[in-house]
TrEMBL record:
One of its GO terms (molecular function) is DNA-binding transcription factor activity. PROSITE patterns: HTH_LACI_2. It holds the Pfam family Peripla_BP_3. InterPro entries: HTH_LacI, LacI/GalR-like_sensor, Lambda_DNA-bd_dom_sf, Peripla_BP_I. Residues 12-66 form the HTH lacI-type domain. It comes from Bifidobacterium scaligerum. Keywords: DNA-binding, Transcription, Transcription regulation. The keyword Transcription regulation applies. This is LacI family transcriptional regulator.
Amino acid sequence: MVRAMTSQPGNAKLAQIAREAGVSLSTASKVLNNRPGVSDATRKRIEALLEKNGYRRRRRTEQTTTTMVELLLDDLDTPWSEEILSGVLAGLNKPYVPIISARTSEDWNISDWLEEVLARKSAGVIIPLFEFPKEAEERLARSGIPTVLVDPTGEVPKNVPTVGSNDYIGVREATEYLIAQGHTRIAFIGGPTYLQTAASRLDGFRGAMRQAGIAVDPMLVTSGEFRYEDGSEHARGLLALPNPPTAIFAASDMQAAGVYAVAWERGLKIPDDLSVVGFDDLPTSRMLLPPLTTVHHAVREMAQFGATTLMQLLEGKGGSMPTHIELTTNLIVRQSVRKLP
């Protein structure tokens, strides 16, 4: 019978055993906790080292995992979250099913969520658009629960697989398109300044303007959350300026939808009176009138690829996979930008 093992006081640390075996701490934890996702040859090598260092075996039935995969979302009722969920469902194999958690309450904290994940003995974790604290990385690694980050917002952990996109290039290409249409007074509504993704999008905008020799007016650069309300709030301020912009680049499609609403309130026509560009290419961008020119961010594709990556880890096929995967972005030209005379 295959048995799981537990450590005793005075035994070598699991991290030392992982180094000696030439594997990550997460892989060593999987073997210790009898979790899937490790090749037979590697499992045997780690088990031999565990026994050599005095780890005692216990019955496998004492530690079992479920077929639940944790999906941690920022919100539940946004088109972005719907795209993430659709992608994850497309990427998961039977019998695995997602258990959805959301950071919707003010008193939410990752420590409590981790306790719930460990109590459920979940098979794996997918976390989109979230800065992954070291505490969470280490706890999940020690538990042997494989984790994949989708569109990570902060510093990317070395040993955690990630799926993202090149936001800088996407925004730069879209800004160059606006400039090619004759726009020089371009406003930019960015995302939260503490997010790496928001910083990359702002850098892409500034880079394209600098390359074109166009000075960026500080009055035209604002930041907020990637939400409808933030787009409308900042659009009101921008369009009330004595010399308003001829184009607004919103760092998310939801912000762009807020810009549309304010333009309608002020009796402005898009694109005749104001050109607008978004970022994400959510279904919302196609429903706006006129349809929104935006950067395809491959949200659903990233989520699907993240779920597929997790499946490979659970099936022990992750050894040949790249740790960090970056999908390309591309500009989707629709009807929200006017070419100036």
